[in-house]
Amino acid sequence: MKFLTVLVPFLWLLSVRVSAGPGCGPCDPAQCASLPAEGCPVGSMLDSCGCCSVCAAAEGEMCGGRRAAARRCGSGLECVKSDEDKKSKVGVCACKSNYEVCGTDGVTYRTGCALKTASLTAENQGKEPIHVQNKGEVYNVSGSQVYLSCEAVGVPHLSSPGRGSSELTLNELKDAHWLYDTPGIMKERDILNLLTEQEVMSVVPSQAVVPRTFVLKPGSSLFVGAMARIDFLQGGKSCWFSVVASGRVPVHITSLEKADAIYEKHAGHILLGVPLGGLERMKDFPPLVPQEYRLEGRGYLEAAADIKLSSAGWVAVTAPDGDQLVLRVHGPEAAGFSLRTPPLLPHVIALKGERIRKTAATNPSNRWACWQAGCRTVVQRGCTCRRRRRRRRRSDETSDTAEDWRTDLDHSPDLM
Fold first, then answer.
1. pLDDT digits (tens, 9 = 90+) for 226-256
2. What are the boundaries of each domain within the chain?
3. CATH code of the domain occupying 20-95
4. Which Gene3D superfamilies does the protein's record reference (predicted)?
5. pLDDT per residue as tens digits for the range 81-119
6. Closest C-alpha among 293, 291, 183 to residue 228
7. How far apart, in whole angstroms, are the C-alpha atoms of residue 236 and residue 258?
8. Where do runs of H (alpha helix) occur along 67-214?
9. What is the SS3 assignment for 1?
10. What is the model's pTM?
């Protein structure tokens, strides 16, 4: 009897049309408008009163509002409001994820929300839905080229002690970021196409690449093998040039006046290294074609741009803030050399190491070893990292400053 006394009031409530909130009248599904015949771009949901099914607001559409007129964003979207919009309660739908994703249709979508919109459109047209091909950000790395790619497909395998080789589990796959290395793909404009098998072995790194940094004055030239030449034509002060390439490719610094003679005499020989084979080899190697670039320095702690040397690597240029540089880059026309901004490793100068006296070069070995050990601005003594003491500076300061590097640049030696 007590059970029936408790149940009867609830049964009475179920028979009453309820109002979900302020401004909402009694819910009558028969009065709800029909959804579009072509379907909703980002799916449907109940309105703010919880009564009728309506199309959710898509990316870039208005959202929010007051009471019954409020409009909600679709799945994966959020209603972003400015300070002014907060007063009117109105905003714009924006995707919660702001990185590109790959679809199973082979298309790179700007965001996951854009992929979902395309998938719903395909389903409404009777086609197969589109899913994210690989969770996480998908990149293709080939030499100096780094770009988002939907064309590379594969399932990584793990090999660890006690586990053997197996595919990633669903939990591991969910949180994974995918990196594809495609050394077998030949691009149309690639320096490797112009090299012999032995030369390719020298150009393609076989171990970790240690950046080699040089300080150059205006009116000097830098050779990366005999494959590339960079002329520093104009600039207010000396600049740093960090070569990120295989250590088996020689780097040679000379003056602009001597550069032509150096190339003519040593291309194909041991000084420049690649290509190698004397005059006979250089007859088959295409001539170097010049192209000019203009850069603006971003300070002594950040590279202004990268000069991409196709699959041979790149050269990062670090210059004083606001300094206007003019560079002339020589390379085979078929190699596809170009300028990359922003640079791939903007703070590569931090690994430059100590300046070698009376030369334009630095010794990155100590700095590189310390960086791998998790130390900064240190001297490596076996397995111990200790702080370097500087005159007229507090001994507890452990980071190089722009002032220290400016001193190095001001005392740049005469080039050979």
1. 999 999 999 999 999 999 999 999 999 999 9
2. 20-95, 101-153+169-181, 207-416
3. 4.10.40.20
4. 3.30.60.30, 4.10.40.20
5. 766 655 667 888 888 776 677 777 777 777 778 888 888
6. 291
7. 22
8. 83-88, 112-124, 170-174, 197-203
9. coil
10. 0.51
